């Protein structure tokens, strides 16, 4: 496998520079008797697997006593697998420090807000900020890297395992000292910190850095929002620094290895910073049937699409180091069971959304420990059944198609501004009852998913030229450099939609002193915000509290029925919708067209939505938040005229269409997420890659969970002047 992604800038359009489609499983040879090993390797080879991932929780085996290393088990396991043609991804095992370490150095444990140290017995109990833990992390990484330096079966490394998934917060003295040092490095003088944090508010000013406290540390009322944002910036810094220690060692030991990290429930990682630039690519562990995810977002297909699209927005194509295969459980959670065919469909959804490698979690379930019911490819009784057959089918197919798939990016007609750490954290630090940018964006993403519109997440610093439209979901923080980029995009013909409150805070999380949305955005959009205020959410059913993965986890509180009167109507063209969460009254500059007006109470007749022609495109300002109804109106009145239409018009609900493309080829993925057959009309002509390879088009029938990949015929497309061309 060759990777050179590191040299390419972070971009949603970046494929992984590889000629191997990784397919295989995370594997735990340490969980079974050695008599299983050869049989496991033979079965993996027969299934067409090329890779396993090993050792992410095995520090105690590799270093049973401080300074004593024992690689015997993994050496032999890697050898058996390697001889069967299965390569190994090794992991730094730092998510589970051995007991000797936490017993001898208890200062490495994370500490909760009440001062209690995390206990041993699960995972991620160590504090990434701890200098002592970092020292041990470097020691184990160096020992493993040097031991495996010349082992040709090892192709790459995963750092740790799902950083921060089980929590990232820590409040003990170790964290406090590191936080103070981080702030001193950032602000240099205490006066600069006091300015940034607003020390004259509630006498929160400090005389020196060693007086600074951790936020939420026994504070009777809320602490300042900049203090909170800086704490999360610190946690992200600490996470990236911890990984950086390991990456430096791995790269110095063998520059041919690729290095990645597998993301889980993401908190306190800044994906546009060193965390990502250190890596060749990202990995994303996807478990679409997790109940809490489904309840929050929608059906199983929608959950998977949303999470993978968000991940792609961070750095481009990725691998899936853990793809749900069977049902899963921990003592406190459990998931639904993928039906026959569904595991293969989920794997193709990952590919369709940008995966350049898929590994099924896991080869076999454990017989002991906290995940005895997290099913694998092989069952507890060592019998390969339908999941093995599906993995084998997928591995054979995807390997045969790898040269078509690798090197392509996922098409996006509509981009949603995403992957901005400060915007996520500034919202969380002071949400005023509003949805997070991700919650708001999710409504638009859901519409696109359900209508098979090519949509995804992209940072304004990325290449916008392949998009037709860009939606900015209420990014409180904005920088002038981004205005220049979206202006250039609009001038070239793009449509920009700016959500209310965009640009209303500065880099220090202060409310700006200019009129919103700030000088450059006001000039570009041709408006200023005269007044803003809160509206009740649709249905009068609650204020949002942030939390969870991507901030999409919301708790709603019931509001009294009388609050329904604080829902204002919004008229856009001949449509009328009830507005949610926010109203803004807009002052409109000459030359800017009002395309939406308030239609209720004192706001009646005032401008709520505007459009300004900029070059060949336009900039739309929307002085409220999205609702499902408003998204429909936008789709009709703004997106469709901008050329944003379904990839396939005649397609039933539950069937996904996406495109992966490069300069010379275009692959249309049509995937049936339903447990019943589906019929799709008007499929453009092309070669049926998962079928018999013949050219066909028109009507397509898919069985339950059926998958089709069609290599579109460019000549036919051009002659038809199809939407897809
Ligand atoms: C992932 C984790 C795995 C396993 C899996 C199923 O988050 O990386 O180690 O725990 O979930 O719970």
TrEMBL record:
Catalytic activity, EC: 3.2.1.23
Pfam families: Glyco_hydro_42, Glyco_hydro_42M
Signal sequence region: none
Domain Glycoside hydrolase family 42 N-terminal: 28-399
Catalytic function, reaction form: Hydrolysis of terminal non-reducing beta-D-galactose residues in beta-D-galactosides
InterPro entries: Beta_galactosidase_Trimer, Class_I_gatase-like, GH, Glyco_hydro_42, Glyco_hydro_42_N, Glyco_hydro_b
Keywords in alphabetical order: Glycosidase, Hydrolase, Metal-binding, Plasmid, Zinc
Beta-galactosidase trimerisation domain location: 442-644
Enzyme class: hydrolase
Protein family (similarity comment): Belongs to the glycosyl hydrolase 42 family.
Protein name: beta-galactosidase
């Amino acid at each position: 496998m060759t990777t050179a992604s590191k040299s390419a800038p972070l971009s949603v359009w970046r494929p992984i520079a590889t000629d191997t489609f990784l397919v295989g499983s995370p594997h735990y040879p340490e969980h079974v008797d050695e008599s299983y090993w050869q049989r496991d390797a033979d079965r993996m080879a027969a299934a067409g697997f090329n890779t396993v991932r090993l050792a992410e929780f095995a520090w105690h085996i590799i270093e049973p006593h401080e300074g004593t290393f024992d690689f015997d088990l993994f050496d032999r396991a890697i050898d058996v697998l390697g001889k069967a043609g299965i390569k190994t991804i090794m992991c730094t095992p730092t998510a589970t420090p051995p007991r000797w370490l936490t017993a001898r150095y208890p200062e490495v444990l994370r500490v909760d807000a009440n001062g209690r140290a995390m206990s041993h017995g699960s995972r991620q109990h160590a504090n990434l900020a701890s200098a002592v833990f970092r020292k041990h992390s470097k020691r184990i990484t160096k020992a493993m890297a040097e031991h495996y330096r010349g082992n040709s079966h090892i192709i790459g490394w995963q750092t740790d395992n799902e950083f921060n998934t089980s929590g990232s917060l820590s409040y003990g003295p170790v964290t406090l000292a590191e936080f103070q040092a981080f702030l001193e490095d950032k602000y240099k003088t205490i006066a600069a910190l006091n300015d940034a944090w607003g020390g004259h508010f509630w006498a929160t000013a400090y005389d020196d850095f060693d007086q600074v406290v951790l936020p939420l540390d026994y504070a009777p009322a809320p602490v300042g929002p900049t203090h909170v944002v800086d704490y999360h910036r610190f946690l992200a810094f600490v996470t990236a620094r911890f990984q950086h220690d390991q990456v430096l060692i791995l790269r110095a030991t063998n520059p041919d290895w690729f290095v990645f990290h597998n993301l889980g429930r993401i908190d306190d990682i800044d994906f546009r910073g060193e965390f990502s630039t250190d890596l060749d690519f990202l990995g994303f562990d996807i478990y679409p049937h997790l109940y809490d995810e489904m309840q929050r977002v929608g059906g199983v297909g929608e959950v998977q699409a949303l999470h993978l699209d968000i991940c792609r927005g961070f750095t481009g194509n990725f691998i899936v180091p853990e793809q749900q295969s069977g049902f899963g459980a921990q003592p406190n959670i459990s998931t639904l069971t993928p039906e026959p065919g569904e595991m293969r469909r989920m794997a193709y959804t990952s590919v369709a959304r940008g995966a350049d490698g898929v590994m099924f979690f896991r080869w076999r379930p454990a017989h002991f420990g906290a995940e005895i019911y997290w099913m694998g490819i092989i069952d507890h009784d060592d019998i390969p059944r339908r999941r093995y057959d599906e993995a084998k089918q997928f591995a054979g197919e995807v390997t045969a198609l790898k040269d078509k798939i690798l090197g392509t990016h996922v098409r996006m007609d509509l981009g949603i501004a995403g992957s901005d750490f400060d915007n996520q954290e500034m919202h969380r630090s002071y949400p005023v009852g509003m949805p997070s940018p991700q919650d708001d964006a999710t409504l638009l993403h859901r519409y696109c998913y359900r209508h098979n519109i090519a949509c995804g997440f992209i940072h304004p610093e990325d290449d916008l030229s392949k998009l037709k439209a860009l939606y900015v979901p209420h990014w409180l923080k904005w920088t002038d450099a981004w205005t220049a980029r979206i202006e250039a995009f609009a001038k070239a013909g793009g449509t920009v939609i700016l959500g209310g409150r965009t640009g209303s805070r500065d880099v220090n999380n202060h409310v700006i002193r200019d009129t919103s949305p700030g000088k450059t955005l006001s000039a570009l959009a041709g408006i200023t915000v005269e007044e803003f205020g809160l509206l009740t959410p649709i249905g009068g059913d609650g204020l949002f509290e942030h939390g969870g993965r991507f901030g999409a986890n919301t708790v709603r509180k019931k509001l009294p029925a009388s609050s329904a009167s604080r829902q204002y109507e919004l008229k856009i063209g001949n449509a009328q919708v009830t507005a949610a969460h926010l109203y803004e009254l807009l002052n409109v500059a000459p030359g800017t067209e009002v395309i939406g007006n308030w239609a209720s109470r004192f706001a009646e007749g005032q401008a709520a939505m505007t459009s300004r022609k900029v070059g060949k495109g336009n900039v739309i300002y929307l002085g409220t938040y999205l609702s499902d109804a408003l998204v429909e109106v936008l789709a009709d009145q703004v997106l469709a005229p901008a050329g944003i239409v379904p990839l396939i018009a005649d397609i039933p609900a539950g069937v996904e269409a996406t495109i992966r493309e490069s300069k010379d080829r275009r692959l249309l993925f049509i995937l049936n997420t339903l447990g019943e057959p589906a019929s799709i009309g008007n499929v453009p002509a092309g070669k049926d890659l998962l079928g018999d390879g013949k050219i066909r088009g028109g009507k397509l029938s898919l069985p339950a969970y059926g998958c089709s990949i069609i290599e579109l015929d460019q000549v036919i497309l051009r002659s038809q002047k199809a939407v897809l061309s």
